Amino acid sequence: MVTPNRPGTPDGHVCGIDTAMEVIGGKWKVLILWALHEQPCRRFGELRRLLPGITEKVLASHLREMEADGVVCRVSYDEVPPRVEYSLTESGMRLNDALEPLAAWGRERPHGTVAAPACGPDRAALPVLAENGRGR
User: Fold this and answer.
1) 91: exposed, middle or buried (C-beta count within 10 Å: 0-12, 13-18, 19+)?
2) Helix residue ranges per DSSP H, the chain
């Protein structure tokens, strides 16, 4: 998913998180990264079976984008029937390592638990700000 550059910055990115989210944004990309982490080389059909609900079109599109971003490597073998394998690049492995704490957080979080009220943070817990933007 290519997002338009933001005005006001030379490369259109505000910070590292912004850059990372451009690469992994969307419902499926993180799951594709994780599937490729579990086994170094996967074929298209294997990835599709590992990600129930993803369409062939979306998987193909995401793999092309991830290849263009340098996190996935595509190797096409000159065989009949054609065989294509996908694996993580060094950059993709580093990205997956960076996602591990997020995965640990998700495993530790009880399912169905809401951490904050649905309407936003508890206003009583927020510091009162003076007109100049500093706390009292």
Assistant:
1) middle
2) 16-24, 29-38, 44-50, 56-68, 90-108
Write down all domains in the chain, each with its CATH number in brackets.
16-125 (1.10.10.10)
Using the structure block, give the residue that is written with the tokens 């943070």: 121
Cα–Cα dist 44/63, whole Å:
9
**Tokens 């029937």, residue located:** 81
C-alpha separations of 98 from 95, 120, 122 in Å: 5, 28, 30
Tokens representing 20 are: 């990372």
pLDDT (tens digit, 9 = 90+) per residue, 71-130? Answer: 999 999 999 988 999 999 999 999 999 999 988 998 898 876 655 544 444 444 444 444
CA distance 116 to 120: 7
Q: What is the pTM of this model?
A: 0.70
Local structure of 87: helix, strand or coil:
strand
